[in-house]
Amino acid sequence: MRIAVWNTAFLGDAVLTLPLIRTLAEAFPGAEIDFYVRRGFASLFEAHPALRAVYEYDKRRLSGNNRLSALLKMGRVLGGRRYDLWIGAHPSPRSALLARLSGASVRVGYAGGLVSALCYNRRVSRRFRELHEIERLLELLNPVLPPDAPREHWPELVLPPAAIEKAEAFRDSLRRGDQPPVLLGLHPGSVWGTKRWLPSGFAEIARRAAASGAHVVVFAGPGEEGVARDVIALSELKGSPLLHDLSCALTLPELAAYLGVLDCYVSNDSGPMHLAWAQRTPVTALFGPTVRELGFFPRGDSAKVFEVSLDCRPCGLHGPHHCPKGHHRCMVGIDVEAVWRDVKGKLGV
Predict the structure, then answer these.
(1) Which residue range(s) make up the domain with 264?
(2) pTM to 2 decimals?
């Protein structure tokens, strides 16, 4: 049996699809499962034992894949892989059309709209604002699994050994005698401008952590280097042996592995946040334009979310680049003292 799981949304969405994949693997032993993800994400999932292959799909407009000719060409490629079951986890018309073009005999997707009705022959309600995203994704299995079939609910990452070894070597390099280092990770960036807590807030947490003897590791992806530099400058820790700037210095699997060796990770609502809590790293998350009801909160007893109650939240599924109200109170109002108390407790300093 050949199964395709299609989720070309953002990084966090792909990570949250792992319970669905593990559930499929356990329900259909011996099935060949392929995972389709957004451009740049394949390396994070290629070591997963439940997957036969991971394919990237470039959905950017400049790639030209939005043209009908490109869609038909991709459809021929998918058809050649002869899938028996297609799980469409990305609720977009283009994703639905590619599901239909794949020729899979059973195509499961979310209900909603004419394109979905024409392309999926099994449809389920997404139940948005009712369920966490993991449970929403697991709903897609209802047409193909009995109600009492076990479902996995935790996104277990499986990373390449080389990435894990590199992260562990980094942590070990900071050891002093028998004392393991205390590591605080900070990720001040986000694709969406309104999701970013103030650089001054991150800088204050960094300064206090270093004053307590903790190592501060700053992470940033492409395009986030500027905000990382601002945080480091405001923290006045540049040149300190306790400050480690890893902005754009790691591959995606390496980033995940480094997040896995931290004692605490302070992050905006972002894809890396999901990489951290999925590995049970204690997470201090800062939510502004997004809310719990959207279904993307971090899980686990060691995950704490800070947010400000405002009538204007949420202001979008992802949060716009600029505050529609012009005040950005959802982030400005997050209290540094409260965040530090949570971080300090997790670090044990």
Answers:
(1) 161-347
(2) 0.95
